[in-house]
Amino acid sequence: MIKVKNISHFYGKEQVLHDISLEIKKNEFVFLSGDSGSGKSTLLSIISTLLKPSSGELTLDGIQTNEIKNMDIFRQENIGFVFQFHYLINYLNVYENIELAANKQRKKEIDALLKDLGISSLAKRYPNEISGGQRQRVALARALINKPKIIFADEPTGSLDSSNSKLVYELLQKAVHNGTTVIVASHDTGLQNYATQTIRMLDGKIQ
User: Fold this and answer.
1) How many domains does the chain have?
2) Does the residue 45 lie in any domain?
3) Of 3, 70, 176, 188, which has the fewest beta carbons less than 10 angstroms from its beta carbon?
4) Is 3 among the domain residues?
């Protein structure tokens, strides 16, 4: 599913990743852990195609990313993103935020997804009218609507309390059971209870 081969990365003259190689299989729930500055967020950004590495190769679902001609289309068809800050559009209601991200053929599935995530009652409400935990569930719905092969999440519970954090991880775990591969970079050690693989970063290397 995901192969990382000899990836290194520099910000200016500072090397933040050192010759990283790893493999993630389909339907894994991967916890990418490490302290601030360990390189985990940079590695997640590279694996998720948001950042091009200084050197090395990345293969997603059998395709080398440097051979992908239209990365925007590839992302829309294969990848979902969840971040610490939900990045919902404040002048669109919950339904419209998800609809904006949905492929044409998936728009009819929004109501069912909202029900599955327990937020049907929020469909016509706006982001500033719902709680932080509810907003993150909406962001998760937005990531799931196109049924991506892979979901990447960067500190998805960083601004949530423990009960909402648990709910988000349970929803991600459910996505794995439904066929999605999930990779989460986080400080939240509680994620170990859900992950099938833990990768710990230290000083730009895998421990």
Assistant:
1) 1
2) yes
3) 70
4) no
Task: Give the β-pairing of 197-202 and 205-206.
Answer: antiparallel
> What is the reported pTM?
0.89
**Residue 164 domain boundaries:** 25-53+68-206
- Burial degree of 179 (CB within 10 A; 0-12, 13-18, 19+): exposed
The enclosing domain of 79 has a CATH number of 3.40.50.300
Contact 59, 7 (CB under 8 A): no
**How far apart, in whole angstroms, are the C-alpha atoms of residue 109 and residue 2?**
28
Per-residue pLDDT of the chain (207 residues; tens, 9 = 90+): 899 999 999 999 999 999 999 999 999 999 999 988 899 999 999 999 999 999 999 999 888 998 888 998 888 889 998 887 778 999 999 999 999 888 887 888 899 889 888 889 999 999 999 988 888 889 989 998 988 999 999 888 877 778 878 888 888 998 899 899 999 999 888 888 899 999 999 999 998
